Request: fold
Amino acid sequence: MTEANMFTEAGKFLNILIDIANKAVEVDELEIAAGIEKDDLRTAYADYKRREGIDTITQNTPEWEAMIAATTGEYQSSEAAKRKVYNAKRRLKTAIDNYRKVLMENQYARAA
Reply:
């Protein structure tokens, strides 16, 4: 392998690793945002119960259905945040898999 090829390969690996790092940071940021959305949903549930003077609500009761209807926006935001985390994790895993693929190809090329 020539020196120029070594620099090209090193640059390729560096770019892939930077991409992985960026995706990892994105996952972390989205997990923080999803946690905030989940807290907002819990707060919305608590606020609803406080406004209605209810201590606990059993699932699949009229009171439950009313609380769910009153907090639909917060629920949808929380679910959207969870989907963003899931998709970001999937992109991170793909980037890691691509790195492993390039690494294996490079090792096979060296052995040949």
Q: What stands out?
A: The CA atoms of residues 43 and 102 lie 46 Å apart. The helical segments are 3-52, 62-70, 72-111. The radius of gyration is 24 Å. Residues 23-111 form one domain.
